[in-house]
Design brief:
This protein has about 180 residues and is an alpha+beta fold. It contains five helices and ten strands, in the order αββββαβααββββαβ.
Length: about 180
């Protein structure tokens, strides 16, 4: 009777996965990492920028840094060397807060945004959700390998951004060093 009562102990049922399967992998140009994403998404790189978009029509606009209204979800990574960033005003011993301030000024983010500490690419990072042009974004920023990075999830609305979060979190968890 005791054994029958223990049947099923130690077995776990996985929670259902929200969103599309991550069936393809793209390397971030010149950065040494790759990320998994849903099949059929479009990708393009122009080092130091890599863009992955759900809708083909968003690809070139995102690659050029346009803030035009997105049709779907997009991911972009921009990474810049510290000498360049120092030449445009980032302090010598820059902190994550310094990097945030530089990005906030560049993207004209509102003053009242809340940042969250997180980790991406195996290093500490800051995350911020912000309206950006006609879109909504979650931007992750930090320092790795003598570079600063800005990894951005873009959506056409705040609701679409929230809906994309389960897939985005799985994409972030899929980041790994690129095979060379």
């Amino acid at each position: 009777v005791l054994l029958a009562g223990c049947a099923g102990l130690g077995t776990e049922t996985a929670a259902p996965v929200e969103g599309p399967a991550l069936e393809e992998r793209t390397e971030f140009a010149g950065f040494g990492f790759s990320i998994a994403h849903p099949a059929g998404w479009s990708t393009a790189s122009d080092d130091p920028v890599t863009v992955i978009t759900e809708q083909e029509g968003d690809l070139q606009a995102a690659l050029q840094g346009s803030q035009a209204q997105a049709e779907g979800i997009g991911v972009s990574l921009d990474h810049r060397g510290m000498p360049f960033l120092r030449s445009i005003g980032l302090p010598e011993d820059a902190s994550l807060d310094d990097l945030y301030a530089m990005n906030a000024g560049f993207f004209d983010w509102p003053d009242d945004l809340e940042t969250t500490e997180t980790e991406v690419f195996g290093v500490p990072a800051l995350a911020v959700v912000a309206p950006e042009g006609a879109n909504w974004t979650q931007s992750l920023m930090g320092f790795v390998n003598e570079e600063a990075f800005l990894l951005v999830l873009t959506a056409p609305s705040e609701e679409a951004l929230n809906d994309a979060m389960p897939t985005w979190e799985r994409m972030l968890a899929s980041i790994e060093p690129a095979s060379s």
